[in-house]
Amino acid sequence: MLKKIPTQQVELGMFLQSMEGSWLSHPFWKTKFVLRDQADLDALLRSGVPAVWIDVSKGTDLLAEPGSPEPAAAAVSAPVDLSAEQVPEPEPEPEPPGPPTIVAPKQQARPARASMGAEMEQATQVMNRSREQITALFGEARMGNAINSEECQPLVVEIADSVARNPSALISLARLKTKDDYTYMHSVAVCALMVSLSRQLGLDEDQAREAGLAGLLHDIGKMAMPLEILNKTGALSDAEFTVIRSHPVRGYQMLKESGGVSAAALDVCLHHHEKMDGTGYPQKLKGEQISLLARMGSVCDVYDAITSTRPYKAAWDPAGSIQRMAQWTGQFDPVVFKAFVMCVGIYPVGSLVKLESGRLAVVLDLNSQNLAAPVVRVFYSTRSKLPISVQTLDLSDAAVSDRVIGRESPQDWGFTHLDEIWRKA
């Protein structure tokens, strides 16, 4: 039986069915689980979620005060809340092979985090090695040579280890690629995002690395595209766009011919441009027909693409990109997208935000317990319209009274140096 209760009355042992309020305020990436950890309960009580639905048939009920009647069960149904357990197994498809079977995500302990500053140097070294290896790998693919996915494994491990120490460091550095090396470094960025998202969804370490390899190889088909189209600075013609849209199939064929490439990597390569509403390509798969890894690949691919400078467009700011993606109804799996936001934040590293004090700041690092209270570097006053002494604030610290009241567009303020500010972490 379902019952709606105020959040402040939640106790350990209750089965959470769903939560009310904006999903961005929820402290968990999913619901539908028994609340057993005191830290989780504390996070829920601090979250601002006004009320929750509990299932008293699967967990403990609200204890009535002595002498008072037992609270009545709600007479209406709880709102539908998709969770990872509800992601169905994909139906088998005709050739080319459909998505591999992905087991339901498992809960596991998060890797120990390092500070942004502590990880930046190591992440920079990983990025430099990645650039060399991926440029060589994609160069071989462009010449028509077979892809040896085994040679990619050490790189995936390096990227996964950096993401474990601090996801924001490598992911944010990968976003700074130039338009000239976009095609290569985009794959490194998607690899890192896939690893981070896998862990957020509770996949085990082997699955996370498999997802990372799939991200690394997902755009290999672009090596079969004509350079004059791939690097064109203007809008593509209909004919050119048709050619570019063939890169998932071409990449699938290249990986298949190379042999030894996992079914997961083949699936993500072929299906990372599918959309939940069936309007994607190349097979117009819809909803349950798209595997979990391909749904993940879609979100990671789009986020890195729109936040990167490309031959034909300037990068969008990270926070604005998350806001726009949230409005694209029908494109992404809502459960996967919510988990993705938990990875990169409502205000990802590098975002320009306005504080209640009237100061502007750039985001340096995330606070996993409260996405609305990141670590920021203050540098400008909107009241005096002048730069101010640079100051680093952890907005989750009880001693800090300031808070974020919204994102700002760097273009509107004429700021072109934000990356220099946050990279000095």
Topology:
Blueprint: E1 2-6, E2 15-19, E3 33-34, H1 38-46, E4 51-55, H2 116-142, H3 153-165, H4 167-174, H5 182-200, H6 205-217, H7 227-230, H8 238-244, H9 247-258, H10 263-271, H11 292-306, H12 318-326, H13 334-344, E5 352-355, E6 359-365, E7 375-381, E8 386-394, E9 404-407, H14 410-413, H15 418-422
Antiparallel strand pairs: 1-4, 2-3, 2-4, 5-6, 5-9, 6-7, 7-8
Helix pairs in contact: 2-3, 2-4, 2-5, 3-4, 3-5, 3-6, 4-5, 5-6, 5-11, 5-13, 6-10, 9-10, 10-11
Which terms would index this structure?
globular, 39% helix, 9 strands, 425 residues, alpha+beta
Structure write-up:
With about 425 residues, the protein is of the alpha+beta class. It folds into 3 domains: about 1-65; about 115-345, Hypothetical protein af1432 (Orthogonal Bundle); about 350-420, no CATH class. About 40% of the residues lie in helices and about 10% in strands. It has helices at about 40-45, 115-140, 155-165, 165-175, 180-200, 205-215, 225-230, 240-245, 245-260, 265-270, 290-305, 320-325, 335-345, 410-415, 420, and strands spanning about 1-5, 15-20, 35, 50-55, 350-355, 360-365, 375-380, 385-395, 405. A 5-stranded antiparallel β-sheet has the order 8-7-6-5-9. Helix 3 packs across helix 5 (about 180-200) and helix 4 (about 165-175) packs antiparallel against helix 5. The longest helix has 27 residues, at about 115-140. The model is unreliable at about 65-110 (pLDDT under 50).
